Amino acid sequence: MTAALDILPVTQMPADGPYGPAGTHGVTARLFDPPALATLAARRGGGIALAAAARVELGLDLADAPRLSRADGLSAIGTAPGRWLLLAGTEGDLAARLAPLAPHAAITEQTDAYVGVEIDGPHARDLLAKGVSLDLDPAAFPPGAAATTNVAHVNVSFWREPGEDRFVFLVARSYRVAFARFLVASGAEYGLELVHRG
Amino acid sequence: MSRLPSSGLVDRSRRLNFRFDGKSYHGFSGDTLASALLANQVRLVGRSFKYHRPRGILSAGPEEPNALVELRSGSRREPNTRATVAELYDGLDAASQNRWPSLALDALSLNGLVAPFLGAGFYYKTFMWPATFWESVYEPAIRRAAGLGRAATSADPDHYEKAFAFCDVLVIGAGPAGLMAALAAGRAGARVILADEDFLAGGRLNSEAVTVGGEPGHVFAAQAMAELASLPNVRIMTRTTVFGVYDDEYGAVERVSDHLPTPAPFQPRQRLWKIAARRAILCAGATERPIVFGGNDRPGVMLAGSSRSYANRYGVATGKSVACFTNNDSAWSSAFEMKAAGVNVTTLIDIRREVAPALAARAKALGIAVLTDTQVTGTSGQPIGGALTGLSLRTGGRSDRLAADTLAMSGGWSPSLHLTCHHGGKPVWNEGLAAFVPGRTPPGLSVAGAARGTYGLGDILAEGARQGTDAASALGFAAALPDLPATEDTPAGIAAFWHVQGSKGPAFVDQQNDVTAKDLGIAYKEGFRAVELMKRYTTLGMATDQGRTSNVNGLAIMAELTGASIMETGTTIFRPPYTPVSLGVLGGHHRAKDFRPTRLTPTHQWAASLGAVFVETGPWLRAQYFPKAGETDWLTTVNREVKAVRASVGLIDVSTFGKIDLQGPDVGAFLDRVYINTFSTLAVGKARYGVMLREDGLVMDDGTTARLAPEHYVMTTTTANAAKVFQHLEFCLQVLWPELDVTLASVSEQWAQIAIAGPRSRDVLARVVDAGVDVSNEGLPFMGAIERTVMGGVKARLFRLSFSGELGYEIAVPARQGEALARALMAAGEEFGITPYGIEALGVMRIEKGHVSGNELSGQTSAGDLGFGKMASTKKDYIGRVMAARPGIADPERLSFVGFKPVDPGQRLRAGAHFLTIGAPADMAHDQGYMTSVAHSPHLGHWIGLGLLKNGPARIGERVRAYDPVRGGDFEVEVCAPAFIDPNGERLRG
């Protein structure tokens, strides 16, 4: 990878700090542990009932599409037909919170399965263009758009937050160093600030 | 120096020093290496591929067949760089290639003397016998003599990357057509990418003295570029070659740093772009063709349009005395413009009897002699280096001579339609243009300008504007046709002409591969007349330039020989890449340790802190063994680890196993269909070992599946098959049995899983579970699976499972707790001497116990082969059941799973050894099977093995020969049951 990567071990998270030419700061990547995560899969024939329950019980518009739905600190993104990743803004028993959906869906605890990476900055899209094979132009991938895809051979789910070029990635935990290496290799050119958010 | 008074477009205030073959020169910013060499009157730049003939610079662009150099040095050395496109930078260091001892005096040019023997088909005819001579004698000799430069011998220190781009309209080429197309689409608001391979956009506008919109062509180009740069919806990519058209995307290479001595910090050398474009317009221009005549490869013989480029764009006279030789009007324009720029153009030689009166008048006014109905029949040159000194001419029946140090030739222009062929479209011959024009184009791609065979500048501008407008309109943008700038029209008359008959000396068609007109004659005589055969027999067009300057001439000469038309003769088509693409850029970041991502287990840092040695298992890094101070070889360590487990307790991270969560009322029924054995009857709180087959009846995977609740199961798969099994289950649910109410979720990443094994493992477990959790033999019996908490409230799944054959447990906790669990188990087991072990010890113990693993689950073994025949239920259907009953799969003579021990306990077994009946010859006809896994058993004190043997279980007690010719092993082994310890499983259940 880049000169920056040549000296980084493949088995350790790159340290916090700036990567790239001195004085440049084009992208920030904040790594964080999601407070609570679960996967939700509609039971056979249970999609409509699940959507209704989500609306009534959680106030969540569970779009069966690669989109972000958000209500009351709960974010859901469609990852496949009838499947979602649910992310809570605070720690706690997400499965219990989702219990009203249980008759219509399988709920699987995944809090430890993923790390989160929030990427923003004026060169966020330039960095991501080196790994994401999707058109991230706001016209094609507007705020709230989500995708489950592959970046530098790492499976990811991500969405675009409202606002300027801010993307949140969920990356399988065992791949977190590999993904961070992708970020450093691709972002150093623009000045990448890597931050582990507590 | 041969710089002209006018600067052209180079910046004479910025002087750049460079070296060629160790000698220092200087050029200017805006030069290519070729223009700078010509400015320094360096005419001999390389030796040809086969005959080592002296060669100079033929062209001024990517079509260059001759001026190939080694650029840079050391680990950045880059062979076969075309000097005509290498942008000059300060400190550039280049060397000629394919010469020894020096460029001017080359020993192997003697090849030229034996040229009569090195013609077409030479290799095929000469080196047929004896076959062994090819590898040992001929090939090395040929490789030494032939050559296209030397690759660097150490790793490339630069890095490369890949990127994706998206646009409405991709415009390929920023010449007059491309600029107009980009302006039209860009002004309409379409997202436009304008890619140009040159470092200066403008194409021929930079090389021809034309007026566009009242400005010199290059000024118009610069103004257009400035406007495009100001449009936020337009992305300009210079130094970027679009090299291929693929399905729904275009491949391009951006040479980010090739024009710099070394890339700027954190910049890649090159970047590979995959461009998804809804529409594309190919505006790649055209390539001039040489004329085939004797001695046409001498340094000093070059393309007329290129000679014009050197004068107009680079301010360089290509010679002191320049003659032109042509069949078309463009060379006349070249001659006039060169003369106007101050080049001494003496003579215009045209094969045509008559030319337009205006051209003749202009030549007269400029003082250029005109010879019509005249052909160049030969050349003469300097004794050393061979550079051109004179021409032999033939006018009607009369011969003449003319002194010239440069011959600017033009046989007409070939549209650069390469990309139009990438989806299989065949070019179409246009008799009037004497050129191939695009046939069927790839979806969404149109062609404008000279690439389409449109040669008049006004028409080119109009065509580009029209297509840019049409592309944007078709995509829903309100596009208006831009105002067309006024320009003069350029004369383009041509009389098809290819080859000077009866000329003196070898007449080269393909200068890079040293293919002559005579070689085509040989191909004709020997029957290789179809274009594809001719190409392969003569190697015409097969060099790195893909025959840009030679293909059409070659076809035309073959057409003359066969008497067919060029259209009937047909053409070979172009495949990607358009120009050579470095392998580095195709790899991008994914090289060395980043070839693919490395997956780390939850306990990686903990294992590393204990000094573990890691091994790659698929993408995972797993602890292989944990050497202690003083242990010098892995076997010592592994023996210690195995003994410790069997004597007391050990632990290993098994998080890499695939883990799949299954929920729903039909999970039991589903599992019954995917496993050979029954799971619907499994009690809640219990786990069962299962074997899964592929549809063809062979084993796909094995593992344990536990029932956590009536409608909730969790399955484990082998590490290697985790993704494959998940995919298989998804397929079954989505396609085969959509009626089953079952949902799947991968939980491989959610759970860290640590196995503890050994007689004291229960004691250790009891110390990490929370108060009130009963792990006694009654509370957690063999194959029990329960959900409890450990380490003070951490959710955990406890399984009583064993791969080692000892009392054992697997403890799953959320992944972030994995390392804490490992530390807690180490602390809890301290008094028992708990020993962390790696996958080597795991392997030894499973071989001692006779469990199958990846080596045996090879995709070639059936359940019966592996001893699972009795597990297969006869009361239900399951995937693979029918096919497993095929006679071939059910044959008792099949290779089946058994154990092996050496008759002489001192012998080391080797996996891969083949079994032979004692006394039978060691050949494949007598092959009886092979050893799949071996280990040194510290328990038994000798090597043991598992393997697949014909009719194996019936042969227990028999001796067979284990033959390993690869590593020289050849000794007897005894067939035994595949369980070397505790065959009745008493240790597991206590």
Automatic annotation (TrEMBL), chain A:
It comes from the Bacteria. It holds the Pfam family SoxG. This is Sarcosine oxidase subunit gamma.
UniProtKB/TrEMBL annotation, chain B:
Residues 604-876 form the GCVT N-terminal domain. It comes from the Bacteria. Keywords: Oxidoreductase. Gene3D superfamilies: 2Fe-2S iron-sulphur cluster binding domain, sarcosine oxidase, alpha subunit, N-terminal domain (3.10.20.440), FAD/NAD(P)-binding domain (3.50.50.60), Probable tRNA modification gtpase trme, domain 1 (3.30.1360.120). Residues 506-587 form the SoxA A3 domain. Residues 897-982 form the Aminomethyltransferase C-terminal domain. Residues 168-430 form the FAD/NAD(P)-binding domain. InterPro entries: 2Fe-2S-bd_N, FAD/NAD-bd_sf, FAD/NAD-binding_dom, GcvT/YgfZ/DmdA, GcvT/YgfZ_C, GcvT_C, GCVT_N, Sarcosine_oxidase_asu. Belongs to the GcvT family. This is Sarcosine oxidase subunit alpha family protein.
